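Appendix B, record 7
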Amino acid sequence: MIYFDNAATSMIKPLAVSRAVLKAMQTMASPGRGAHEPAMRGAKVVFDCRMEAAELFNVPDAEQIVFTMNATHGLNIGINSMVRRGTRVLVSGYEHNSVTRPLAFMGADIHVASSAPFDSAGILESFKKELPWAELVVCTHVSNVFGFILPIYEIAELCRRQGVPLIVDASQSAGTLEVDYSRLGAEFIAMPGHKGLFGPQGTGLLICARPCLPLISGGSGTDSIVQHMPEYLPDRLEAGTHNVCGIAGLLEGIRYVRDKGIKNIFEHETELVKSMTESLSQVEGLEIFTNGRRFQSGVLSLRSSKLSCEDMAAALSERGICVRTGLHCAPYAHRSAGTLETGTVRFSFSPFNTEEEVDACCQFIKDLL
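Structure tokens (predicted):
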């Protein structure tokens, strides 16, 4: 099997991740629910993961790190806290449904700042034009479809100047690009644990500037006599039993990222994008969405005039090559790129992918087309 679907889930993990999950299942109980040794072991893993995440993302207080089920969960918390019917929300033209559907559900008045893929100056100009209208900005750091790295720090600076709060979706950048909370100054930064951080599915992180509205209420292990959620983080947003096993795996995933180095991970993944682009550049009828590694992460989309995206992905799957096809839960991105009618075939890489895998995949595509 060749696994090129890491933008969905980094299925191939460091061995320490699965070992930590198993150990947690066998030795740890619920944090905050007892003073016995299994509960204390669980509490230590949760504490250590918060501390490691705070250091990786430059968060001054580890209690600002909230554990979630995934990035969608975190984005819903942030949007539910800041949006009411009619709230004027400006988004990029590359948002995932995990942003746009909650905004639509809340009845937000949505405007879009867009540009062609990899046009960093164009999308920045679009944000400048639209920002005076907005009461909130929600922006992805990296497009999950095209790997387009948006100028998120410049957008954050524009928001500060206008006094407009910002929510950042770091689903495709956490673990691959610098995500600096203190530099961004965002109200919320949401990210999954199961992608670039190599944690198990069902894990995520939400970095919060301050306490906000809980999405769900329940037991917190603290202030049990009070019949509303605690006012302080992280307890205010962590109702119910923690996913201790998942958090134990996420801790080891974060440690892997820190040991490997975010810069090294990014350079490896973008080198694979470059290799695939160069290998397929002369294939007749193949449209490759790239900008020569400028403003692009380790994600590459393409489509062929000879074969539908679905048929190409099916043929790849039959050869044991795992990719994603369709709209990738991001119709806004496809509208921006003009690919809404066809979708794309997406290849997304990780540190565990190799040049040999790329070569084998490219040869099959050439033979297929």
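Remarks on this record: The domain at 15-260 is CATH 3.40.640.10 (Aspartate Aminotransferase; domain 2). The chain has two domains: 2-10+262-368, 15-260.
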